Amino acid sequence: MKMRWYINLHKVLTAPVVLAMMAFQDQWENPTAWVYLALHGTYGLLWVWKSRIFPDKSWERQASLGFGLVIWLALTLYWIAPWLITSGGVQAPYALLAVAISLFVIGGCWRCTGYPCWCWWGTWSSSGPRTCGARTARWRVTPSLRRTGAGRSG
């Protein structure tokens, strides 16, 4: 299986796992748990969406089941925070939650639009698809479209 499948599956499962933690610990009234669920659940969905639009070529490599489990276990460390929040009934101050939400929105905009667009336009080449590190864009931009800033061509 490709590396990205292990990563994407883990990202998509974050929301149900956090919901299960909230249910198991009866933390339905905990705003910190809800904010964590909203931020990381949304991030997981956006990650998979970005992976389909701007795939990372380095994650297209095949990974053995053993290496896939290593990836999965490493990503599972991200589930420690919601476990600590729900098991300990941690409730962050509302100001801290507001800062977390703001940073998430800024980071999400950068991750899903800023960086890929920078790669898209910043490394454009008339000789072939643009690359940005390991990423390769799926569409080609004609020279006339680049000058006008218009859309992409197939």
Give the SSE string.
HHHHHEEH
- Poorly predicted parts: 133-154
Distance between the termini: 28 Å
How would the global form be characterised?
flat
Q: Structural class from helices and strands?
A: mainly alpha
Q: Could you describe the 3D structure shown?
A:
This protein is mainly α. Helix content is 66%, strand content 3%. The chain contains 6 helices and 2 strands; from the N terminus they run H-H-H-H-H-E-E-H. Strands 1-2 form a two-stranded antiparallel ribbon. The radius of gyration is 19 Å and the shape is flat. The protein starts with a helix and ends in a 6-residue tail after the last helix.
Strand and helix layout:
Elements: H1 3-24, H2 31-53, H3 65-76, H4 80-88, H5 94-122, E1 131-132, E2 135-136, H6 143-148
Antiparallel strand pairs: 1-2
Defining key terms:
154 residues, mainly alpha, two-stranded antiparallel sheet, 6 helices, 2 strands, 66% helix, disordered C terminus
Summary, kept brief:
The chain is mostly helical and 154 residues long. It contains six helices and two strands.
